[in-house]
């Protein structure tokens, strides 16, 4: 049928709403990350307890399903010792001639603008387990030197 013959209320032409994708692998989190997941989950549950228009309720339910699953599957990462790069460490690296400091965190806590990267990112995977002074391979022709490691505050 031609679009010209549809009523504006027809929903068949709307984009489908898919579930939020769950990152593959374990849901390792820092203490801060677990707290953020708990807060987000509580916020959504509070919104669901209130009266909401049907469309808004569907959107909140979609988000709530994601955060409920993330809370249920959260595994607190081992507390890092500060000797090796691990989840929950702040790492200063020398990449080429650029020095930068990054925090390695769980998926839901990652925020590149705040220099927080997920442990599953290629950069973090290249560094995990490395010690200060170690040079690790990254990408085809690039290396990264680990300059400093500290346990990040929670």
N- to C-terminal distance: 57 Å
Rg, please?
Answer: 21 Å
Oligomeric composition of the shown chains: single chain
**What is the total tally of β strands?**
7
| Unreliable runs | none
CATH topology of one domain: Chitinase A, domain 3
Q: What does the average pLDDT come to?
A: 89
Largest sheet composition: 5 strands, mixed
Assigned CATH superfamily of one domain:
Transcription elongation factor, GreA/GreB, C-terminal domain
Q: Give me the secondary-structure category.
A: alpha/beta
- Helix content percent band: 25-40%
Order of strands, widest sheet: 5-4-3-7-6
DSSP strand content: 15-25%
Shape by Cα distribution: elongated
Describe the model:
- The chain has 154 residues and is α/β, with parallel strands linked by helices.
- It has a domain at 89-151: Transcription elongation factor, GreA/GreB, C-terminal domain (Chitinase A, domain 3, Roll).
- The chain has 3 helices and 7 strands.
- The chain has helices at residues 31-49, 54-73, 122-127, and strands at 27-29, 74-76, 89-95, 98-105, 116-118, 135-138, 142-151.
- The relative contact order is 0.16.
- The mean pLDDT is 89.
